[in-house]
């Protein structure tokens, strides 16, 4: 394989990676916990936070709610990472820590 072919393949891979990342950034991911739903874009921007618990919230429930927000956020990030691995996994060896 000559250098010109190698460069062409690298440029093609870069275009594919860029396209997949743009596709992921446009996707939305819903993180859920018992009382909270948080929607993120693929680039980890919060799009929506929804409290699903009905009624008033006591001080004890406020602390629980904070924990639920953390759980929902973690759930959404796990889904984003899974989608990234699914879409960009074949490039993982070529990226070596760039993401």
List keywords for this structure.
alpha+beta, rod-shaped, Ybab, Chain: A, 3-stranded antiparallel sheet, 59% helix, 99 residues
Characterise the protein shown here.
This protein is of the alpha+beta class. It has one domain (3-95): Ybab, Chain: A (2-Layer Sandwich). It is built from three helices and three strands; from the N terminus they run αβββαα. It has helices at 3-26, 59-88, 92-95; strands spanning 28-32, 36-41, 46-51. A three-stranded antiparallel sheet has the order 1-2-3. Strand 1 (28-32) and strand 2 (36-41) form a beta hairpin. Helix 1 (3-26) runs antiparallel to helix 2 (59-88). The two termini are 28 Å apart. The mean pLDDT is 84.
Record the SSE blueprint.
Elements: H1 3-26, E1 28-32, E2 36-41, E3 46-51, H2 59-88, H3 92-95
Antiparallel strand pairs: 1-2, 2-3
Helix pairs in contact: 1-2
Total strands: the figure is: 3
The CATH homology group name: Nucleoid-associated protein YbaB-like domain
Main beta sheet strand tally, sense and closure: 3 strands, antiparallel
What is the terminal separation in angstroms?
Answer: 28 Å
CATH class: Alpha Beta
Radius of gyration: 19 Å
State the order of secondary-structure elements, H for helix, E for strand.
HEEEHH
Any idea of the CATH topology?
A: Ybab, Chain: A
Question: What is the second-level CATH architecture?
Answer: 2-Layer Sandwich
Which band does the percent of strand residues land in? 15-25%
Number of domains: 1
Shape: rod-shaped
Please estimate the helix content: 55-70%
Unreliable residue stretches: none
- Average pLDDT, to the nearest integer? 84
The number of helices is 3
Provide the structure class.
alpha+beta
